[in-house]
Amino acid sequence: MKGFTDAVAGKHAACRRPVRIGATTLRQGGSGAGIEVAVSEPESMRAWRVVRPGPVAEHPLIFESVLLPEIGANDLLVRVSACGVCRTDLHVAEGDLPVHRAGVVPGHEVVGVVHRVGPAVEGFVPGDRVGVPWLRSTCGRCRYCLRGDENLCPNSRYTGWDDDGGYAEFVGVPAPFALPLPDGYDDVELAPLLCAGIIGYRALKRAAVPEGGRLGIYGFGGSAHIAAQVAMARGVEVHVMTRSEEARTLARDLGAASVQGATDAPPVPLDSAILFAPVGELVPPALEALDRGGILSIAGIHLTDVPPLNYERNLFYEREIRSVTANTREDAREFLGFAGRHRIRVATMRYGLAEADRALSDLANDRVRGAAVLVPRLHGS
Ligand SMILES: [Zn+2]
Ligand SMILES: [Zn+2]
């Protein structure tokens, strides 16, 4: 049924023979009944795989030609238009997160166009623009799923960690977890919204900042600069603490009430704070900056060790620490709905797909202003 073309194979004649990666999911219905393939489909694609998790300076990823992802009956095959580079990808590449799938293709802020749909898919057709986010599947049956906390599902799977992600020309995604996207943004702007934006939104919810209240933001990268705008749109006064001079400039541009160094005290006591930097040493100063009853929300999936806390200085007067674990689809819908109603400014730096290792290195070394985004067709890369 598939119409193959030699175009891509020819283009990558220099690459070695494609390798089959990953576990096989359900093949499309054996007979192929009901599947329409309107456009020809290449047999192979270019993708980055994490082959030796370790410091990014030691090149843990390789770029090679691999076969296209196989999709199951309920999946979409998506041609990648843009894929954000998230700090979690760095944690996957550097081995801060345990290996869930050997040789995984990272990337979970994918904007693309549906290329082919599995035979059981409803609600999507080829040509639709969709987002492929971090949350890839949940069981729908456990006590957490049943009570609406699917982000806590012990059987959840994640794009670019448990299954191959978007540092590639194509990615597969279960249709129930693909996200319709708001109008008014180009593909590159949308990519960082899909993790940085959604997680920042959840971190903001967890921080429970009152309307018109004061929010501190520690670390000001891809996620923080989006969350700050959501907060400001709600009349919240935002104070930014960051070590990066570039990030301070961005924070001022976006309208932060104050901007200072990473461990400096904000000028006023905070109702809530969000720690975006994956740095445990910032927990005590962030707690000290809270007013009585304040809440510190920790947005990262990984945090270096938190130093000992002083109960009176850091926690007494009912100050709280809350972690943030992934997100629910409801969070994603709420946030993307917000993005459709309020124009969010998304600062991005574009890289060709072939430059993913440089993008990760720039992220590791604080050289990215806003969010890095891979664009497969940038400069014909
Ligand atoms: Zn579950
Ligand atoms: Zn992410």
Distance between the termini: 29 Å
Largest sheet: 7 strands, mixed
Residues in helices, as a percent range: 10-25%
What is bound: which ligands? zinc ion
CATH class of the largest domain: Alpha Beta
Number of domains as seen in the coordinates: 2
Shape: globular
Query: What's the CATH topology label of the largest domain?
Result: Quinone Oxidoreductase, Chain A, domain 1
Mean pLDDT: 90
CATH architecture identity of the largest domain: Alpha-Beta Complex
Strand fraction equals 15-25%
CATH superfamily of the largest domain: Medium-chain alcohol dehydrogenases, catalytic domain
Low-confidence stretches: 1-37
Total strands: 19
Short characterization:
With 381 residues, this protein is α/β, with parallel strands linked by helices. The protein has helices spanning 7-11, 87-94, 143-146, 187-190, 196-207, 222-233, 245-254, 283-288, 311-315, 329-341, 356-364; strands at residues 4-5, 41-42, 44-50, 61-67, 75-85, 110-117, 129-132, 135-137, 157-158, 170-174, 179-180, 214-218, 237-241, 258-260, 270-275, 290-298, 320-323, 348-352, 371-375.
